[in-house]
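dumping these here so i dont lose them again. two proteins, back to back, each one seq then structure tokens. dont judge the mess
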Amino acid sequence: MPRLFPTPVLLAHLLVNQVLRVGDSAVDATAGNGHDTLYLAQRVGDTGKVYAFDVQRGALLRTAERLRAEGLENRVVLIQAGHERLKEFIPAGIKTAMFNLGYLPGGDHRIITRPGTTIAALKQTLDLLEPGGLATVVVYRGHDGGKEEGEAVSKFIQNLDRKRWDVISTVFPSRSAHAPFLVALQKTGDFQKEGGSL
């Protein structure tokens, strides 16, 4: 019998399905092997745009190859830069941003996302989201540095203004303490009405 409860990655996709539409702009903050980039490109259609970031050239080459195979390369801007530089490349008004933290599967496991740059990227992402927009963060804790990054993300979401951000964090008590978990943050309409900071 299949598990009823989806993986954090699949759950992130299910949530993004609820908000991302044809013509929207989206961000893959950790392109990796291009799975989320491809998914986002399929969702935004010919009139939308996806911005995909990775510090590793090899990751972007694999992502580009995956997009070409589906004929979707024109929908995506590939950016070789850390996600903490989002605002240098992306205009405000994005509908969705997706993060898959940790290391590149099949790559050098010493190259990982880190708490400082991840939190900087999240802060910029939340500024760039339009009201109703959604950010998803899949946090992996089973590698060196993963536990600390997970703690930093959890602390970050606890300090957000609850009137302006609707936030979930998944917990699977039956799974390993090192199992990945999902954080999702949606900007509420109150943010647009009141303005202000995080």
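---- next one ----
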Amino acid sequence: MKHRIDPKIDCVFKALLGSEENRNLLVHFLNAVLVDDLSSPITEAEILNPYNEKEFLDDKLSVVDVKAKDGEGRLYQIEIQLLAYRHLPERMVYTWCDIISQQLQSGHDYSLLKPVFSIWLLAENLLPGEANYAHEYKLQNCLGHTLADLGGIHLLELKKFTAERIETEEQRWLKFFKDGERLDDTALPDWMNTDEMRQAMSTLKQFSEKERDYHAYQARQNYLREQRTLQIEREEDLREMENIKLEMEQIEREMEQIEREKEQIEREKEQIEREKEQIEREKEQIERENDQIKHYMEQARQDLQRERMEKQSLQEEIDRLKASLAHSQQ
């Protein structure tokens, strides 16, 4: 091939699974991924939004997922996602529910609802805490009992897919999407030696060798690169805003703590002032009591001095009387 082509670029992805000439690849891909969900293999599928080359050349906002319906009326949505972002799970659930709800028109009965299977190929890991690359979500309770058989959401994380030995058709497709850009069409590995993989490789070759198709590929690649850059910047801005918010919340908590401590200090200060006033009052009381004691002691000293003087005067009077008595006896 003249140029390396990444099958994860959305215009290539949609040409692989969403074009009329590759409808058999869509059927094969769906049977590979949903082998455990379908009671019988899909034999025919109608592409509801087929790939249009002009859309990708002229409209950067063209719809890039693949929607299809099989012969039993079951609906399928397949989407490639190059960048994992915060609210991607909510988007997955919303689009799945939206496709379910769009089946019914006014007056239609709920029994007309058909299962909807949403398949997401993820270039970046969305669930870093889980080792498995494949995840399936359905309307079930914690015991595994199904509330309503309305299909489900399948997530396939390409970065976590590391198998070298291909054992299932699902693994073959995952390895193709993960390693397709590095493949050489003149020396394909053994795991690519199937009719479907050779057909998929011819689609990559078409984008590589036809100038118009390669122009569409480059335009989408550049646009998606810009979008990834903007998304990364938005995520960084959001993380920075979250960090600022957390810091502000921390500052507010610290300010509240400081206010509480300040109030506590004020209360302690008031308590100390009250205790100080109490001490002053007790000191004044002690001083008054001391003054009163001093007054009583001074009064007692005066009374003692007076009694001593009276005793001395009385003794002198006794001595005088004794002397007078003794003189009269002579």
